[in-house]
Design goal:
This protein is mainly β and 1039 residues long. The chain contains seven helices and 66 strands. It has seven domains: 228 residues, Immunoglobulins (Immunoglobulin-like, Sandwich), CATH 2.60.40; 115 residues, Immunoglobulin-like, CATH 2.60.40.10; 111 residues, Sandwich (Immunoglobulin-like); 99 residues, Immunoglobulin-like (Sandwich); 96 residues, Immunoglobulin-like (Sandwich), CATH 2.60.40; 90 residues, Immunoglobulins (Immunoglobulin-like, Sandwich), CATH 2.60.40.10; 107 residues, Sandwich (Immunoglobulin-like). Helix 1 packs parallel to helix 5.
Length: 1039
């Protein structure tokens, strides 16, 4: 048996199969320019092709593109294209694809000018200029093709989703003609390519039809333009060829003599590339006053100047005339004209005439119209610039409006009063900024007009909101009572309006003496006096009179705290008996009710005093402080403090201790005292506003408080972009990622609606941002790392930007558990013994939730290089690997496993590497050595067991000798004319995976060395391995 096994192993051959893969690289075809001669008029055609059609992509489409590129102004066409994903377009109700293909037997098919046969009806194609000859001969267009002038345009609405397409048609022939408008929206470059990667052009997307779903029928009158318009969604077309949707929106028009139900003559066609071959037009026409005034008055002489130019591609010498007309009462009155000279390309010509306005009747806001016209032109393709009108403006005197007081019309003497005034220019020449206004005043009814009190004249506002402000500042000795005012306006031409008189426009009143308070100009604050002390206090900053000197006022009071008023020194003498405290024990201000008189009127009010103890520290008024948001301020308080001892003698303020009592708005700022310096700091970088800080001064015995007001000034901050969880995102190729960008953007200074946001990336069209909804839609067709830049700018020009990292993946990896226990999937096999069919279980030991699981297993042989068995399990097992049609694993076999699944986030996942487990030989159980013979056994006698062991040893020796002889004989036989393939030398052990402990070869019994990862070497027996395996492994490590 052993000899047979050795013979079998030595006879096993090894076969290697190499697979070579050649990656085909598609070369970009370079379009060579073709130049077909123009027939001198527009040519129209229709093309039908498909993505799979070889002649379509190889000849027809390049021929059309070359012809269009070389004759862009004279050739256009519409393609009906079968895309790989969308199929044939649904072109009803016109069904133009069937119309073109009616007489065709295949693709490509191209029809010039709605032809169905002959040289203008092309089925098949070859080369790259297949259509040039028929184009040059006229493309079967109507003989009167040059009698039409077409212009077209498109406009996108403010919402950015609707396109208005317009077509202007002018018949240049004689009489009238009825035409049918063939209109189609195409993609300039199709969004779906041919199978070779090239793209069709002018791919049909939608019809531009009449309200009854027909070609629009319209009768054109000679030299009268007619315009048609259509509204379509921008989404009608798709981006393609590097063009955005807007750039790829490509209308094509053709004028026919019949509806789509018949085959017709085609007169003319147009797309955005096509323009007139001959265009002589007016470049400018100006009707101006010879005295250079903007408008004119009756009797002025107007100069009428017109300039024309040849805008065409060829010289013009076919005659015509330049004429100037006065338009009145719906009639044109000819003022003069000349013939058109010969004009080279870009050549110009001028003509001038004069017009006497003496007989014109001028009207408010009136104009006189003049027209320059080109007539008698031959072949002119653009008629819209063959005439131009200009207006000469009537210059009329202004009409004043009644002025209105800004604020109260009754003020005290010494208080300025302002009037706002406007006037109607009464023409189209002047506006507020070109007119001047004069204001005069007078005591009511006296008409003694004067301007000496007018202290300022200002023009404010602009446009329709412009107006003059006149400021009247009456002196303190002005007569009280009511006053009239009057206004007169003069325009830029020197014409003046009538006087506009307003009676009793304002009143000057006697100014009452008053007691000043917080918020009044010049207010000195609340004075401080000592309790039980006769104090003199200055009234400067406590009372005022706009007209009367303080020394001329009388001040009196019945309060016992009031002692006297000294008008010479402007002081009052008071004495308070006690200090009044609030509920917290803080002294509060006390008042004295007084009466003020200026000799004419009386007023009354309360003077407030801070009453303090003798020796109590005193505060002088601390002015309001300010600093910018996000910063801080410091204020030395020493200069605002004084102190006395109990006898009222001054003491050093340096001994006073200061502290912060309270901050009215602690969410806005914080305050602290360092020595006698107050430090105030903003709590953050964005808050602004006002807060009051109460500071207390103490000499250790007595204390007093003051209130200091701080303003934090607002500084504009750039909008903030908080990406949050969107800093880094993963998206699968072809999938869309929608992100609310506006939710990330904020501005502490302005409303979020005023923030202008842009979202960009390097791949064109990969990111589409809707500024209305604030949603950015992202999608990529290729994997890789993409950067998306978000920029936010406020209305002040401050901006900020943030970058999102998008990882675009085809799928995500699933990892086999490694020797350290790291990974997602752990494999368990019951055994990998020869002749066994392993039962496999895969455990999901990671954190992923998997679905749509597919396990692919195979059984391959490392000796033959052939994989014999395959299988699929739609779960992680257990499942059986049927090796060699159920016969089980053989020598050199190994099992491979790969797993594909979908995780809970919807991403595809797969194992990047296959799991491998090699077949192993079953471990033989070796019985234990027999125990020593009992002492009573005859030592000179051989037992039956001893004889058996010797026989087995002899048999093994004979088998070994026989096996070695066979091997040597085979080596000699193979060495003659045969090449020996040394598997062990050629095999790259570095690529073999680390064998899982679950499927590693079992350790042989006794002291046998472990088998290598690939199993027992070819031609070896286990007995040979037990004896020589250790030496084999040692030499292998050394090599």
């Amino acid at each position: 048996m052993m000899a047979f096994l050795m013979l079998t192993m030595s006879a096993v051959g090894y076969f290697a199969i190499e697979e070579q893969s050649a990656e085909k690289e598609e070369l970009v075809a370079e379009d060579m320019p073709r130049f077909a001669t123009s027939p001198g008029h527009s040519v129209f055609g229709e093309y039908v092709g498909a993505h799979w059609c070889g002649p379509c992509m190889g000849s027809a489409s390049p021929s059309l593109v070359n012809l269009k590129n070389s004759n862009s102004e004279d050739f256009t066409y519409v393609s009906f294209f079968e895309g790989a994903s969308t199929g044939w377009p649904s072109d009803g109700p016109v069904n133009r694809q069937n119309h073109v293909m009616a007489n065709s037997g295949g693709y490509p098919t191209f029809a010039f000018a709605d032809e169905t046969s002959g040289s203008c009806y092309k089925v098949g194609s070859s080369g790259s200029n297949y259509y040039d000859a028929d184009f040059t001969t006229g493309g079967c267009m109507h003989a009167d093709s040059s009698d039409f002038s077409l212009e077209m345009g498109i406009a996108l609405d403010s919402a950015g989703d609707t396109v208005t397409t317009s077509l202007e048609m002018t018949y240049l022939g004689a009489g009238d003609i009825t035409v049918f408008v063939y209109g189609a929206i195409t993609e300039k470059v199709g969004a779906e390519p041919y199978d070779d990667g090239s793209s069709p052009h002018h791919v049909w997307r939608e019809w531009l039809l009449s309200d009854t779903n027909d070609f629009t029928e319209i009768t054109l009158t000679a030299n009268q333009a007619e315009t048609l318009t259509w509204d379509n969604p921008l989404s009608t077309v798709r981006p393609g060829g590097g063009y955005t949707q807007w750039e790829n929106f490509w209308p094509v028009f053709a004028l026919m003599d019949g509806d789509y139900s018949t085959y017709n003559e085609v007169y003319a066609a147009i797309d955005f590339d096509m323009g007139p071959l001959i265009d002589v037009g007016i470049t400018d026409f100006d009707a101006r006053n010879s005295n250079d005034n903007t408008g004119f008055v009756a009797g002025d002489i107007l100069e009428l100047d017109v300039n024309i130019a040849n805008n065409g591609a060829e010289a013009y010498n076919d005659g015509g005339s330049i004429d100037i007309y006065h338009l009145t009462g719906g009639e044109e009155i000819h003022l003069g004209g000349i013939s058109i000279n010969q004009l080279g390309v870009g050549g110009t010509q001028s003509y001038s005439a004069t017009f006497d306005t003496s007989d014109l009747t001028l009207l408010p806001s009136g104009t006189s119209s003049f027209r320059a016209r080109l007539s008698g032109l031959t072949g002119d393709r653009v008629v819209t610039n063959d005439y131009e009108d200009d207006l000469a403006l009537h210059d009329m005197p202004p009409v004043p409006n009644r002025p209105a007081a800004v604020g109260a019309a009754s003020v005290e003497r010494g208080t300025p009063i302002q009037f706002e005034s406007t006037a109607l220019p009464n023409d189209l020449v002047d506006e507020m900024s070109t007119m001047t206004a004069v204001m005069e005043y007078s005591t009511s009814g006296s008409e003694t007009w004067d301007t000496s009190w007018i202290s300022a004249i200002d023009l404010i506002g602009s446009g329709g909101n412009a107006r003059y402000i006149h400021t009247i500042s009456a002196p303190m000795n002005a007569q009280s009572g009511t006053y009239d005012i009057r206004m007169q306006w003069t325009d830029a031409g020197g014409q003046s309006s009538d006087w506009e008189v307003t009676t009793d426009a304002f009143e000057l009143r006697n100014a009452m003496p008053k007691i000043l308070g917080a918020g009044d100009d010049g207010y000195a604050g609340i004075p401080t006096v000592k309790v039980e002390t006769v104090e003199t206090v200055s009234i400067v900053g406590m009372v005022s009179d706009a007209e009367t000197s303080l020394s001329d006022l009388t001040i009196d009071s019945d309060a016992h705290e009031f002692i006297s008023f000294d008008p010479l020194n402007l002081e009052i003498t008071v004495s308070f008996d006690e200090i009044v405290y609030d509920s917290r024990g803080t002294p509060i201000s006390q008042g004295i009710f007084i009466t003020l008189g200026d000799g004419e009127d009386f007023s009354s009010g309360t003077l407030m005093f801070n009453v303090i103890e003798n020796g109590q520290p005193r505060w002088s008024g601390v002015p309001t402080q300010s600093f910018d948001e996000g910063s801080s301020a410091s204020l030395s308080l020493t200069e605002f403090l004084t102190d006395t001892d109990d006898n009222g003698n001054p003491t050093s303020t340096g001994l006073l201790t200061l502290s912060v009592v309270s901050v009215s708005d602690e969410s806005l700022m914080t305050a602290s005292i360092n020595g006698q310096t107050l430090n105030v700091e903003s709590v953050d970088d964005d808050s602004f506003g006002m807060a009051e800080i109460v500071v207390r001064a103490s000499d250790g015995v007595k204390e007093s408080d003051t209130v200091i007001t701080f303003h934090i000034n607002n500084i504009n901050d750039a909008p903030a972009i908080e990406l949050g969880e969107y800093v880094s995102q993963i998206v699968q190729t072809g999938e869309r990622l929608n992100i609310d960008i506006l939710a990330m953007v904020s501005d502490v200074d302005d409303p979020s609606e005023e923030i202008w946001v842009t979202v960009t990336t390097f791949v064109p069209g990969a990111v589409q941002y809707n500024p209305i909804s604030g949603i950015a839609t992202m999608s990529w067709s290729e994997s890789g790392q993409e950067m998306v830049t978000i920029t936010a700018e406020d209305r002040h020009g401050a901006s900020s930007a943030a970058i999102m990292t998008i990882e675009v993946v085809n799928d995500l990896p699933l990892l086999w558990v490694d020797s350290s226990g790291y990974g997602d999937l752990a494999v368990s096999m019951d055994n990998t013994d020869y002749s066994s069919n392993p039962s496999v279980s895969i455990a999901n030991v990671g954190t992923l939730e998997l679905s749509d699981i597919k396990v692919l297993w195979s059984v391959c042989n490392s000796i033959t290089g052939i994989c014999n068995d395959f299988g699929v399990s739609h779960n992680l097992g257990p499942f059986i690997v049927l090796a060699n049609s159920g016969e089980g694993l053989k020598v050199g076999d190994y099992v491979t496993l790969t797993v594909d699944a979908v995780d809970s986030t919807g991403f595809d996942r797969s194992t990047p590497d296959s799991f491998k487990a090699y077949a192993t030989e079953a471990v033989e159980e070796i019985p234990e050595e027999p125990e020593d013979e009992p002492e009573n056994v005859d030592k000179g006698t051989l037992s039956v067991m001893t004889v058996g062991v010797m026989a087995i040893g002899l048999l093994l020796a004979v088998s070994l000798v026989l096996g070695l002889a066979i091997v040597l004989q085979r080596q000699r036989r193979d060495g003659v004319g045969a090449e020996v393939y040394d598997y062990h030398e050629e095999y790259d052990y570095s690529d073999e995976p680390q064998v899982s402990p679950l499927v590693a070869p079992p350790v042989p019994p006794g002291m046998a060395p472990p088998l290598p990862p690939e199993g027992l070497p070819a031609g070896w027996t286990m007995q040979q391995w037990n004896h020589y395996g250790e030496e084999y492994l040692r030499r292998r490590e050394q090599s």
